[in-house]
Structure formats: C-alpha cells, structure tokens
Amino acid sequence: MAILTDPIRILTFSTLYPNEVQPNHGIFVENRLRHLLESGAVEAVVVAPVPYFPSSSRVFGRWSDYARVPMVERRNGLVVYHPRYVVLPKIGMSLAPAHLAAGSLTTIRRLRRSGYAFDLIDAHFAYPDGVAAMWLGRWFRTPVVVTARGTDINFIPRFPLPRRQIQRSLAKVAGIITVSQALKDATVQLGIAPNRVTVLRNGVDLKRFRPLDRCQARAKLAFDGVTLLSVGHLIERKGHDLVIRALAELAGCQLVIVGEGPEHGRLKALAQTLGVAARVRLVGAKPHDEMVQYYAAADALVLASSREGWANVLLEAMACGTPVIASDIWGNPEVVAAPAAGRLMRERTPGGIVEAAQDLFASRPDRGATRHYAEKFSWDETTRGQLELFGQILSRTPRIAA
Known about the structure:
Layout: E1 8-13, H1 27-37, E2 42-47, E3 50-51, H2 62-68, E4 72-75, E5 78-81, E6 84-85, H3 96-113, E7 120-124, H4 126-140, E8 144-148, H5 151-154, H6 160-172, E9 175-178, H7 181-189, E10 197-199, H8 214-221, E11 227-231, H9 240-247, E12 254-258, H10 264-273, E13 280-282, H11 291-297, E14 300-303, H12 312-319, E15 324-326, H13 332-335, E16 342-344, H14 350-362, H15 367-374, H16 380-396
C-alpha cells in the first residue's frame, strides 16, 4: 500500500460542536477547525455525537433539541455527522465514554468504507470524548490527539472512576493539547509527562470581532449609561449572580446578561430582591455573529466564572475594543495580562467585581489599545502549532491508504 502525501486527513471527534438546532454549542471547536482548514494543509470530516432522545416534542425541553438535530449536515463547507449515543442522566457518567464510542462506531466505519481514510483523530474534551476517541483510535489503528479544554481537567477528575479513565487514555494517545498553561499544569498533576502536553491557546477571529461604531451599536441595543456585559450559560459556575450583587454597589451602572439556562428565574428574582431589576436585562442567547454588537456597545465585559480553561468571550470583547473584568482563575490571567486588556478581580466576590470595575473605570484604557492587545491572539499561532504536532505524530506513524 502506498504512502500518502498532504493534506493531512483528520477526523474531528467531539460532542462539543455546533449543529442546526444548537448553533452556539461548542463553537470554539468549530472556530479552531475552520482556521486550521484555511491553512490548506488539512482535510476534515466531523463526527459530533449527540445524546439519543426519542421525542422532538418541545414539552421535554432541551432534551427534545437532541431529537431535532439532523443525522448529517453541512456547516461552513464541512460534512458533520451526528450519530446518537445513550446518556443515562445522573447515573451514567462513568459509562459515558463506552456509550459514546459504541454510538459512533458505525458512522466512522461507514466513513472509512466510503473512502475517507483519515490519518488522525482530533478529539476535543478529555472526558468522555477523549476516552472514547482513544478506544476508537485503537479500533481503527489511528493516532489520536486530545484537546483538554476546562472542566474535563479541572473538575471531572474529582470523581475517582472518570479520573482513572482520563489518566489511562491520556497516557495512551499520541498527543495532548491544552488551551492554557494552567490546564497543562493540572494535566501534569494527573501523572502525564510534561513533554507530552502542548499548550495551544484558543484564538479570536479578528475579522468577525472588531470595533464598530459604538454610538450606533448602543442605540441599536438601547444601552443607556455605563453598561456591563455578562455572557455565558445561565448556570451557577458562570457567576452571573455575583455580577448582579455587585450592581447593587455600582450606582448608575446597567447590566446586560446574554445567555440561557436553568438559573434564569433565580437571577431575575435576585435582581428583584436587591432592588436592581430595572438595571438588569436578561436578553437570552444570541447568535455568534450578533455578539459583536453587544461587545462593541458595552463599557466592560465581566466574567465571574469559578472555572474556565480559556474563556473565548474575553478575547472576543477585547477584539471589539471592550476591556474586561475577570475572575483570577485558571487560564484567565494568561488572557488578561496587561492594563489595556482590563482587570482581574482580587477575589471572586461581588466586592471583588466592584473593586475591579471602579479601578478600571477610574483609568479606562483606550479602546484602540484594547483592540491592539487582542490582535496578538489570532488563530495563526494555534494553527501552526497543530500542524507541527500532527506532522510529528504522523512522522512516527506512516500514513497509508485504506
């Protein structure tokens, strides 16, 4: 069988990938892949499994969304397959990698038989995706690269069985990427040799996220006065409640929260209780392309998360010229590393947010300087790093025709 030449053919494997029904889900994975493909050195097909659910009736809430996801679709010129896998709520965490691998096996076999002889599996999220990808790589005799992105390393390993599965799979895959140095340090603490872990941070699309006419953006969105922006799923670890509590001490400030999730009712009630409901707007989730308007119109983005791997919203806001206020956790200090970028909270509390906001607004960076800071974080370096890593792996694993 003949040795094949470029481009490298990859199979991107991740449950974190956008689809027709959930266009913002895992969009950072799609963005990285899209910029990698622009290099011309790679071809890709995406396998993005979704949980099986028997009914598309909206009475079942978000679970019914999975039933409406097409089995195959085309996004940005890429073919994306969505095989189903079994999810057992609350009790199925330890079984998730096995179900994920089994549910994807038939789709990947068909891909191989159709002639797509992929050279490498590019998996995102260490658990369950990375564990499942390791098994798939062994079945198809294909090297696997796993990208760790956040809770897969800084939270899930607290559970004994998933921790052991993560450790075993990372010890066996061909390459490991983390999106921040902090996540690399945590991966090393799991027993992985440092020289096996490559840090390739997320980048920002500098064409999509860019400064706009701020007056027009504010008028369009009806922003009035000093406006803080908080973006992310409405879940506890994102800390939207801390920003609402801080607002009580930031007289005259408005707060706009972009996102959906189970905390919506509690956040509205909290704003009412604190007497700041008139200054808080929960506007729901917004398409990725619309976020540039919100970033451009805001005076500062506030990210009060308790856990992050590499928070894309920080760079997106900066690329629009808007400084940020971020909790001092995990990868955030690697992003907010200069006054032009914004401020890190001294502590992740409402008081910490108030202190950082007051300090930022007392000495606001020029919005052009904030944009210039963000320009250092294009996707180019990440793309070069991926191609270098893939090339090193494939030099040890001959690429042969199926």
